[in-house]
Specification:
The chain is mainly alpha-helical. It has two helices and no strands. It has one domain.
């Protein structure tokens, strides 16, 4: 095997050199000052661009978002206060309606009870009047019947005496016996 002294047998490259023997340009000390100047110029331009254009836009966007959020929070607070007030008014209205409904129910119950009581009294009075009329009629019928009892008793007694004795009975004697029996 031929060995060439220019060829290297290893695959490693030194840190500061390229395979051809020159160092990597950013790490070359001969280019350091010009690279540093360009870095400062680039940084300065980037800083000016960011401070004059990008950051004011971001700041205005953040302010707009902050004001929108604060405005939305204010609106939400007002709406919540309105909702709380509406809920309180609803509860008050509901309590009043319940009270009115209960008083109306009590008034209706009292009115219906009074009407029922009046109808009951009227019906009782009508029934009492009908009962009194019936009692008067019964008494009249009883008196009429009792007035005929003497006549019927005389006729029955005359028929019994005639049936037993075969002779007609004395009407005066039967009337005297019946009058004696009544007293």
């Amino acid at each position: 095997m031929d060995t060439d002294t220019n060829l290297r047998t290893s695959t490693q490259v030194p840190n500061n050199a390229q395979p051809g023997g020159k160092p990597f340009p950013p790490f070359d000390m001969a280019n350091f000052s010009s690279m540093f100047i360009w870095l400062a110029i680039s940084f300065g331009l980037l800083y000016l661009l960011m401070s004059r254009v990008a950051l004011p836009r971001v700041e205005s966007i953040l302010r707009a978002r902050r004001s929108k959020i604060n405005g939305d929070i204010g609106v939400a607070s007002r709406k919540r206060a309105e909702a709380d007030q509406a809920a309180a008014e609803y509860q008050t209205t509901l309590a009043n309606a319940r009270g009115n409904a209960q008083s109306l129910a009590q008034e209706t119950y009292a009115r219906l009870a009074a009407e029922s009581e009046a109808k009951r009294h009227a019906l009782e009075a009508e029934l009492a009047a009908n009962l009194a009329a019936s009692e008067v009629q019964i008494e009249a019928t009883k008196m009429k019947a009792m007035s005929n009892v003497g006549q019927i008793a005389q006729e029955a007694a005359a028929a019994i005496v005639e049936h037993i004795t075969g002779d007609p009975a004395d009407a005066k004697a039967i009337a005297a016996a019946i009058a004696k029996f009544r007293t």
